[in-house]
Structure formats: C-alpha cells, structure tokens
Sequence to fold (444 residues):
Amino acid sequence: MRIFEDRQEAGARLAELLLRFESEHPLVLALPRGGVPVGYEVARALGAPLDVLIVRKIGAPFQPELGLGAITEGGTRFVDEEMCAALGVTAQEIDEIAAREKIEIERRLQRYRNGRPLPSLDGRSVILVDDGVATGGTARAAIRALRELGPKKIIFAVPVASIQAAELLRQEVDEFVAVEVPEDLMAIGAWYQDFRQVDNGEVAAWLARAKGAPAPRGEKRTNDERLVRIDVDGTNLIGNLALPVHPSGVVLFAHGSGSSRFSPRNRYVASVLQAAGLGTLLMDLLTAEEERRDELTGELRFDIDLLAQRVMRAVDWLARAEGTQGLRIGCFGSSTGAAAALVAAAERPHEVAAVVSRGGRPDLASDWLARVRAPTLLIVGGDDDEVLQLNREALAELSCEKELSVIRGATHLFEEPGALPQVANLAADWFARHLPLVEAAATL
Fold:
C-alpha cells in the first residue's frame, strides 16, 4: 500500500484525479477538520473556490467514537436505525445527542464562516472532500444535505476509502473518486505518515489562504504554488511550480525512482531555495503507472535516456511558460535524476545555467559529461563511500566550472542531523551565484 506523507500530499494526489472537472468550474466543499487541507490542495489545483460543509457525528451514548449517524448545518440528519436498535439506543437519546451537536455546529459556523450561509449551489457542480472514509455515515448525511441545495452534480472525493463505504457512497453521488480503495482499510490514520489532528485555528488559516486573505497572525504565508502539466509525447507529467513575487531564477528538481515531488527532502530543499528568491518546479519524471511498474521491475529507474528526455521537455516548458519565461534555469538532481539533469544540461546549453547533484549518479551520464557547460556542484555524503568514489571519477570528466562538496558523516539520504540543511544551503548559494537576477519576463 502507498502511504500518504500528510493531508496535503494526499490532497495533491487526489487533485490529479479530479482535473477532468476543471472545466465545470466546481465549488470544493471540505468536511472539517481533516478534510480542509485536502480540499485546499484540490481547490488550488482546479482553480476553484474552497468552503466547508459542517457535519457532526452522532456518537453512541456509551462510546462517542462509534458513529450512529450525523447531523449537518441546516439540520439534515442521518441515523442508522438498525444499528441503534441493535445497540438499544432510543430515539430520545439520539435527539439529545443531536441537539448538543447542533450547538457545536453553530459555534463552528461562527468560527469558520462568521455565521454566513453556504454560497448558492443551485445548478453548480460540487466536489465534497474529506481525508478518508471508513463507514460512510457522516459522508452520507453531508451528501443528502447537499442534495437539498440543488447542485447540478455532486462528486465525493477522498484519498482513501473502505470498499464498503465506496460501494455505499457510489449510490449517493454522481461520481465517487478515491486514490486508494484497499481491501483492508484498517484505519484512515494508518494510510498517513503524519495524521496529526487539525485544530480549528488551522481550518481558519486554510480557508483564509484559499481566499487569498491575510493569514492569521503567526501563520507564515508561502510562495504561490500551482499544479502544472507538461505533455511529453502524449504523456502528462505532473509538477508543482512555486514562484516568489520576483524570482531571480527557477530550479527544476529531477529525482530518482522511488521518490516523488512530495519527498520531504526535496520539498525542504525547495523551501530553502524559495526563501532565497528562487522559483522551484518539483515534478515526477515517471507517471504513477510507470512508477508502480518500476517498483516491480526496476526497468525505468536506470533508463537515463528516457529520464533525460523528460527533463529536457520540462526545461523547454519553463523557457516559454508564463511566469518563468526569461528566467535562467537550474537543475537539482538526486540519484539517477542527477544523471538526467546533466544530460539535459549538455543538450540544452543555452537554457540550463547551473546544476546541483545531491547524492547523485553523474557517472550514468558519462557520455555527456565532457559536453556539460553549466557550472556543476556535486554534493555527496562523506559516509556514502561507493557514490562518493563515483562522483570523484565523474568530477574528473567534467570540463565546466565544477566543485565537489562532501558532507562529513552523512550517508546517502542525508538523514543525519544537520546534513540536509547543509545540502540546501550549498545548493542555494550555488544557484544564487549562477542564476543571477535577470529582467523578468513581461508576463510576470
């Protein structure tokens, strides 16, 4: 099973499956609290507005975590009568619990939307999002509440759902979308590395960020980041492009197989480059289907020609895209992605202005190394003995401005305390030196 790093990564992966609804100009409604960061990524990818639909579980009197039903803003209520009868829960008890939850709904309405009602859904496509669904009771109540508001279409979308919930909810909505529907769900939290509880303040911050409003005090604003698609001979490659207001250059990340644009290491390095005024494009060189095949066969991770062709197409895209046209381009490669980046630098000498390799395999680009003109920095862990030797040999073949930096005590993934910040700072300095501020394109 493929674990999500956190709700944001889950939302970004879910968004890829929902791009086909972009032309319908949908409204994204998230179920708070855990569904809101997922919904934020979906709304951002589709260029859609984000709001919340407030639903509260009706829990059993003796075990509140056991859901017997749900109640939504507006008063729509769903109750599993068979389960109530089996457990001996009376209608009066359900009414009392629902009354308490209605008070909490009113409190959250004030917190999240200042008491305002939902926007009109009449004749509109709505994507209802949560971070996962196990039984479907709460989701069913939310869907039935939405039906009463007259939307043209309801799409229910989650990163992960049980088979039982998926079958149940497909009968309730126009379309059901999930990234994963495992045979054994276990628990929603088991599908996330980071499944920390989302508090009310975070919900308010996500909603403010989605509306472009100033974030609450203490909430750091990030660079504008958007999902982009790059066509390579009919294959759509997905990337996350982040640009500061006046970027001094843009860096394309090319990683090896088994990693992704959501890699915490790559995202950390990207955040340091962004803080230094550089744009970043984190992209997957393999499609999700290719990645799954490669996990079984290993046939693509060392296909440097394929990976390099895709890096070159991404470089070409950056050279002409709105917001990056006219910017000098750097490549940050790791593992076999470093070899692909060096091939791209050799083949695109006028576009690629600098290269940084992190724990890379530049030796796999040996036929192109002598042709590389872009200043190249190789960063290797001091305890990554085999890769360090391969980098020393590759350094000797390079005829451009070059440098080898060895991080003492670091291994291949730079997981040791303080190792990755050294990598990020070295990369930021290298790109700041070789991607000087140029006149921004007219489209900026």
The longest strand covers residues 63-72.
